[in-house]
Structure formats: C-alpha cells, structure tokens
Amino acid sequence: MGYDLMAGTGEVWPHLLEANPHISQITAVDLSAGMHQLAMKRLHAMRAHRIDFIEDDVLASNLPAASADFVVSTFGLKTFNAEQQRKLAQLTARVLKPGGRFAFIEASDPRGWWLRGLYLFHLKVVLPLVERLLLRGANDFAMIGTYSTNFGDARVFVDMLRAQGLNAEFRKAFFGCATIACGAKPVLGSADMNDAAI
Ligand SMILES: C[S@@+](CC[C@H](N)C(=O)[O-])C[C@H]1O[C@@H](n2cnc3c(N)ncnc32)[C@H](O)[C@@H]1O
Signal peptide span per the entry (predicted)? Predict the structure, then answer.
C-alpha cells in the first residue's frame, strides 16, 4: 500500500498499477474530495477497488508514521515554496516504512538544453493560447511556464529528502523538461540504529 500525494485526478494510477501489478492499494491524498469523486466516476471505475482516498493537507498532515510501502507524487511540487517542500520531504520520510520507495516528478526548467527557448515559448505562450481558444476559455495551463521556471528543477527537493535521512537521487526526463526525485528510505535508518544499540 502506498500514497499518491496531491493526487488530483489520478493520472498516474493506470501507469503505476500496470507497471506494478502487485500493488494492492493506492491511497490518494488531496485537498479536494470533489475532484477525486468525479475522477473516480469518469476515469477510474475499473480500478476503484484498488484506490482509496484521504482528504488531507500534505503540509499539515497526520498520516500515520511508517504506514506506506511507497509514496508517489506527480506535478504537485512546483507551486510550493522552499518551506512547503521541506514539509513534504518530512512527511515522505515519516510515512514511509523502512525500505519503502518514493518518486516525485515535476515540470521543470530545462536549463542548458539548446531548445529551451522554444520549449518555454511553447509553455508560456502557445499552450495557454491553444487552451483558451480550443477549450472554452480554460486556463489550467496559463501559469505552467512561470511555475516551471520559478521551480527550476527537483535538485533542491532531493537535498531536502536527503536531509530527512532518505536515499534520494535526481533524474532528468525529456532533456530536463521534467525532473524526478526518487529513492528509498534506508532499511536501517538512524532511528533503527538507535533501537539496535539499545
Ligand atoms: C497540479 S495538480 C496535480 C494533480 C495530479 N497529481 C496530476 O499529476 O495531474 C495539484 C493537486 O494538488 C492538490 N493540492 C495542492 N495543495 C495541496 C495540499 N497542501 N495538500 C493536499 N493536496 C494539495 C490540488 O488539490 C491538486 O489536486
């Protein structure tokens, strides 16, 4: 069992469950129960028996310690400031069981990529325009370019996860347009070592 933090409409669940058929349950955690219920009805009816939901604020969460074999989170980091990211790193370290794994992915600024200018033009100008014109004035992507460049990449978050005692690594996807913080909680972390010494 594991958590999808800031799960939204659960876009990642089909991929997660297909790649890991042994997963018995994903517990979606989000501020919005309404969005979750709608997504369950429209997108996830066929996998509803493997999805649970907890309405919760990940920045002030009482999710139980050592309750998860894995934590995933997709595209929820970029609007968080440094202090909020630190709280998320703390929560991840707390809820994972020793040996539990985690992966966060976020839209990022592909610094150093020769097509960066074109990509950011697409993100900041083309995508919001297409969305406004073709999706009846929707503005879900209006700020994604700004959020991505403000966020930078997942390197800082990787350092925060390491500061919480997790083994974390940084990865790039698609030339750095998305970046990943992933890894595991050590089986014998400092708390376990203290126990072992007693
Ligand atoms: C950009 S969406 C990402 C949704 C989904 N993970 C995806 O990949 O499409 C951000 C989600 O985070 C949720 N969220 C934002 N702040 C939160 C918080 N403090 N605690 C829990 N959920 C939060 C929002 O309700 C929203 O569903």
Answer: none
* Ligand 1 and 58: CB distance under 6 A: yes
Ligand 1 centre to CA of 24 (Å) is 23
Q: Domain limits of the chain?
A: 2-108+152-197, 110-150
The secondary structure of 22-88 as a DSSP string is T---EEEEES-HHHHHHHHHHH-GGGGGGEEEEE--TTS--PPTT-EEEEEEES-STT--HHHHHHH
Report the b/e string of 182-192 with b at 16+ CB within 10 A.
Answer: bbbbeeebeee
Which residue's CA is the nearest one to ligand 1's atom 8? 74
For residues 88 and 94, give the distance between their C-alpha atoms in angstroms, rounded to a whole number. Answer: 10
In the prediction, which pLDDT does 194 show? 38
**Short-list 30, 16, 78, 127, CA closest to 39:** 30
Q: What are phi and psi of 48, to 5 degrees?
A: -60, -30
Q: Which fold has domain 2-108+152-197?
A: Rossmann fold (3.40.50)
Can you tell me the distance from the alpha carbon of 165 to that of 191, in angstroms, rounded to the nearest whole number?
10
C-alpha torsion 151→9→36→53, nearest 10: -80
Task: Write out pLDDT tens, residues 36-89.
Answer: 999 999 999 999 999 999 999 999 999 999 999 999 999 999 999 999 999 999
Please calculate the CA angle 147-35-30 and round it to the nearest 5 degrees: 65
